[in-house]
Design goal:
This protein is mainly alpha-helical. The protein has a domain at 1-193: SecY subunit domain (Preprotein translocase SecY subunit). The protein has 18 helices and five strands. It has helices spanning 2-10, 14-33, 43-53, 55-64, 68-71, 80-95, 97-103, 107-138, 150-177, 182-193, 195-208, 213-234, 271-288, 293-301, 307-328, 331-340, 352-387, 395-418; strands spanning 237-244, 247-249, 252-254, 258-264, 343-344. The strands form two sheets. The protein has a three-stranded antiparallel sheet with strand order 4-1-5. The radius of gyration is 24 Å and the shape is globular.
Length: 434
């Protein structure tokens, strides 16, 4: 009953209602575009070929594109080129001082960084689309391409690059005028879009006797446990006590109260696995379309479930956990703000000592968060690869789906509480990742 009441309250707030409808409308546009084929390609024959012989890499990447890659639709590249460009630009802000200075210029600097990211997205998408076009011409004797040559390559480059740029625009519009993070919601919708088909395939395997019903029930219970663990960790916080000194201004006394500085266990959210997946899938996807033995071997080694993939994926998750946390969380600024507001951590001297203490705490939390992300992303993938589990959601997909859902619900709840409506929970609030 409380859930129904909350849903009714959502539609009582005009601004929130319009934001949700706007978001759903743009996601519908994305799903329609994921089924529009690229010109000059035999989409149906290519889809059958990729599903049968594309391997784990194509199947894994197809999840993030919402099935557009296997059909070679206009959104086949998905939003991954934008994510790759974001990674490169954020890395360059650390390496190049001039770019780092631009990033610290407030709103004006943020707009410049976004502009650089857009240019990078176009460049990466153009390179990927050219590689796919050349690869399609060489696959199966070119039977998937109606008229091979540079005209086909140029059309494919323009189509796929335009599709990625359009998705980037959709994501920005959702973030600004809708609800939730637009890029994350596009990835989320692509993941959950294939869930009905996956469930139908699972039931077909049960009826055929290839998979036992008990095994599927155990798998569902394991998934429920993993989802519960994800929700628990994503809402977990380390609260550092902060004491504010008393200040007497005129006849009034200010401060003197005790507060907390909340530090999340997983500060980086789902960004590390998304970034890691993007980096691994970029060369693996291109290699999958090139009919050269050693390139095919490299693509196979980068398939989910292999030792090289697992080691590289875990290492990238750890790297991006610490890197992204360092980008969005500055202990020096927090220590300075506490000192300006007359706050201090009991037993820790203000200034540099406070900054060092916060840095040590966030480093330990980030290490625990990286272990958690690695476990959630790697263990289910190994489980699926070794036992040949016919289930759609791997660890990365499940983590992204749950994390994005938590963030979106948290934003909806914030709108409701701001307007004196109850949230989704009777006690407490749903906390987003940040």
């Amino acid at each position: 009953m409380r859930l129904l009441t909350t849903i009714q309250n959502i539609f009582k707030v005009p601004e929130l209602r319009s934001r949700i409808i706007f978001t759903l409308a743009l996601l519908v546009v994305y799903r329609v575009g994921a089924h529009i084929p690229t010109p000059g390609i035999n989409s149906e024959a290519l889809r059958r070929f990729l599903l049968e012989k594309g391997g784990a890499v194509v199947g894994f990447f197809d999840i993030f594109s919402g099935g557009a890659l296997s059909q070679m639709a206009i959104f086949a590249l998905g939003i991954m080129p934008y994510i790759s460009a974001s990674i490169i630009i954020q890395l360059l802000t650390v390496v190049i001082p001039a770019l780092g200075k631009i990033a610290k210029e407030g709103e004006a600097g943020r707009k410049k960084i976004i502009k650089f990211t857009r240019y990078g997205t176009v460049g990466i998408a153009a390179i990927q689309s050219l590689g796919i076009a050349i690869g399609l011409e060489g696959m199966a004797g070119g039977e998937f391409v109606q008229d091979p040559g540079w005209p086909f390559r140029l059309i494919t480059m323009i189509t796929l690059t335009s599709g990625t740029v359009f998705l980037m625009w959709l994501g920005e519009q959702i973030t600004e005028r809708g609800i939730g993070n637009g890029i994350s919601l596009i990835i989320f919708s692509g993941i959950v879009a294939g869930l009905p088909v996956a469930i139908a395939r699972t039931f077909a395997l049960i009826r055929a006797g290839e998979v036992s019903l008990i095994f599927v029930i155990i798998l569902i219970l394991v998934m429920v446990a993993i989802v519960g663990g994800i929700v628990f960790i994503e809402r977990g916080q380390r609260k550092i006590p902060v004491q504010y000194a008393r200040r007497i201004i005129g006849n009034k006394v200010f401060g003197g109260q005790t507060a907390h500085l909340p530090l999340k266990i997983n500060t980086a959210g789902v960004i590390p696995p998304i970034f890691a997946s993007s980096i691994i899938m970029f060369p693996a996807t291109i290699a999958g379309f090139i009919a050269i033995p050693w390139v095919q071997s490299l693509s196979a080694q980068l398939s989910p479930g292999t030792i090289i993939y697992t080691t590289l994926y875990m290492g990238l998750i750890f790297f991006f956990c610490f890197f992204y946390t360092a980008v969005i969380f500055n202990p020096v600024d927090i220590a300075e703000n506490l000192q300006k507001q007359g706050g201090y951590i009991p037993g820790i001297r203000p200034g540099q000592k406070t900054s060092d203490y916060i840095y040590r705490v966030i480093t330990r939390l980030t290490f625990v968060g990286a272990l958690y992300l690695g476990f959630v992303c790697i263990i289910p993938e190994i489980f699926i690869a070794e036992l040949n589990v016919p289930f759609y959601f791997g660890g990365t997909s499940l983590l992204i789906a749950v994390g994005v859902a938590l963030d979106t619900v948290s934003q909806i709840e914030s709108h409701l509480i701001t307007r004196s409506y109850d949230g989704f929970l009777k006690k407490g609030r749903i906390k987003g990742r940040r």
